[in-house]
Amino acid sequence: MSANHDSDKKVINFPPKFRRNCNIAQYLVSIVLGGINANMGLVLSLQVIVIGDLLSGKESFHINSFEASWFGSLPFIFISTSSILAGFLQEKFGRKGTILFAHVPVIAGFVCLYLTDSVVLLYSSAISFGLFAGFNQGASMTYAGEVFQPELRGTLTSIPGIFFNIGFIVVFLLSTIYPWRKIVFICTVLPIVTFICTFILPESPLWLVQQKKNKKAKKALKWLRGWTTEEYIQDEWDALINQVNAKTRKNDSKLPECQNLARSDTGPEEELTVFQTCSLFFGSEVQRPMYLVLTYFLGVLCCCLMPFKPMLIEVMSEMKIKFDPHLFLFISALLQFAGACSFSIVLRRYGKRVLTIFGFTVSIATCYGLAAYIMLGIQKSWIPLVLLSINSFIATFGLITIPWILISEVFPLRFRGIASGVSAALSNGIMFLTIKTYVNFKTLLGLPGSIIMYGTIAVFSLLYLYLNLPETEGKTLEDIELGFQQKKANAQHQNPKVEEVQQN
Question: What is the pTM of this model?
Answer without folding.
Answer: 0.69
